[in-house]
Specification:
Elements: E1 4-11, H1 17-30, E2 37-44, E3 50-52, H2 65-71, E4 73-79, E5 85-89, E6 99-102, E7 105-108, H3 113-116, H4 119-126, H5 136-143, H6 145-154, E8 162-166, H7 167-182, E9 188-192, E10 202-204, H8 207-217, E11 223-228, E12 233-242, E13 247-255, H9 264-268, E14 282-283, H10 290-306, E15 311-320, E16 326-332, H11 340-345, H12 350-370, H13 382-386
Parallel strand pairs: 1-2, 1-7
Antiparallel strand pairs: 2-3, 3-4, 4-5, 5-6, 8-11, 9-10, 9-11, 12-13, 12-15, 13-14, 15-16
Bound molecules: adenosine-5'-diphosphate and magnesium ion.
Length: 395
């Protein structure tokens, strides 16, 4: 039974492009030929082209991106004559018939930018396609460190004291913003609000370093967050699986860093073969008191609900290593490697995790389609339109 097409979407115009390629290929490898799905890749290049084709299913081909683009076929979503959403392939020849494949569901494996911030999820929603993971709102809030933290703060979940500002505000009022930041006391940590993988993140110890780090961060993002540094720091993460109505939580992990902050290198390159997040140095389950683990797990479920997440997320916490006070740091709505290593430790194999994500996406999609989507009115009837001002001939 191999008739349902699962579209695996990855890549994208994001600084985390390569990480997404790895996550997608890990998921493809986990879904063996008995999964019941025919896998089709949807690879979005760094410049935003949508491509498909067999060549994209072999990770080795990503060593030469130019050649890979030539071997692949342009594609797009479209509606077929029956109104179903299809992946339409090929662009050559005005009269040539394009290949069209009905899509059963989309496995969304982007990291960062428009693949993770709700934009791609919105495209799927417009095309009425089941797409794994959070929808537009959960994805958008999850991608915005300031928005996610302010929702948590409003609900009594501890977050680190911080100052955030936009590029124009910095240009207009740098001294006042610097004063406000210095009230937090050095060292502080500078972060782009919408990025991940520690890109543009820097701990600074004085004003000169601060200004330099802020200007570097503005190269990635127009919104910057500067936080008080937690030291000595212990990082604890866990993953939540479910919907905003019901959730399960994984064991906690403790990622281990060789530097002051967990760097891109720590996260993805600790293994020569670049196996992705799963190969980074980590302690699973984290060797922390049960009460702390339980508090973090319960808080994670609460945040998942508050942010209207769905499918899977990994929630990251900063813990003061001496006092064990914990702070919500961020939520990753499409975590590296789909956090499969946490679920494996919690008794759920990688292939089962992916299958559950797809089932959940399909189920939620069906539930959405069952709800009333239109409201019958006669607003556009001739009589009603007559009374509306501002229309031609209706002065
Ligand atoms: N307030 C903080 N105090 C100390 N270290 C921090 C703080 N915030 C972040 N870090 C360190 O920086 C890393 C990256 O920051 P994070 O907010 O997780 O951004 P990203 O989305 O890029 O992963 C964290 O994993 C942690 O090691
Ligand atoms: Mg992080």
């Amino acid at each position: 039974m191999q008739n349902k097409t699962l579209l695996v979407a990855f890549g994208g115009a994001s600084p985390e492009h390569e990480v997404s390629v790895l996550t997608a290929h890990q998921a493809i490898a986990a879904l063996d030929s008995n999964s019941g799905y025919q896998i089709k890749p949807l690879y979005i290049t760094k410049s935003g082209r949508w491509l498909t084709g067999e060549a994209l299913l072999d990770l080795k081909n990503f060593e030469d991106l130019k050649k890979l683009e030539q071997q692949s076929v342009p594609c797009k979503f479209a509606h077929n004559e029956y109104g179903a959403t299809v992946l339409q392939e090929g662009s050559k020849g005005f009269f040539s018939k394009k290949t069209e494949t009905p899509i059963f569901a989309v496995l969304c494996a982007f990291h960062g930018s428009s693949g993770e911030n709700g934009a791609f999820q919105g495209v799927c929603e417009m095309y009425n396609l089941p797409c794994t993971g959070s929808g537009v709102m959960g994805s958008a809030i999850g991608m915005d460190k300031v928005a996610a933290k302010s929702i948590c703060r409003d609900h009594g979940i501890p977050v680190v004291d911080a100052v955030d500002f936009l590029e124009q505000e910095w240009i207009d009022g740098q001294p006042a913003i610097t004063d406000q930041i210095e009230k937090l006391d050095y060292p502080v940590i500078v972060k782009p609000v919408h990025l991940g993988s520690s890109i543009g993140v820097e701990i600074v110890k004085n004003r000169d370093e601060l200004i330099h780090a802020v200007e570097t961060a503005f190269r990635y993002d127009q919104h910057i967050l500067v936080e008080k540094v937690i030291s000595p720091l212990m990082e604890i993460n866990c993953s939540v699986l479910g919907s905003s109505q019901k959730q399960r939580v994984s064991v906690c992990e403790r990622p281990l860093s060789r530097e002051e902050i967990l760097s891109f290198k720590d996260k993805y390159m600790s293994d020569e073969n670049m196996k992705g997040m799963a190969s980074a140095d980590r302690e699973i389950p984290a060797d922390i008191p049960d009460a702390l683990a339980t508090s973090i797990q319960e808080t994670s479920k609460k945040i998942f609900r508050l942010i209207s997440c769905s499918g899977l997320a990994r929630l990251d916490f900063l813990v003061h290593a001496d006092t064990h006070q914990f702070y919500f740091n961020e939520i990753n709505t499409i975590p590296g490697s789909f956090s499969f290593y946490l679920w494996k430790e919690s008794g759920l194999a990688f292939d089962q995790l992916i299958l559950e994500l797809i089932d959940r996406a399909v189920e939620e999609h069906q539930q959405r389609n069952r709800r009333i989507q239109s409201y019958e009115t006669n607003l556009l009837s001739k009589k009603a339109v007559k009374g509306i001002k501002g229309l031609k001939d209706n002065k």
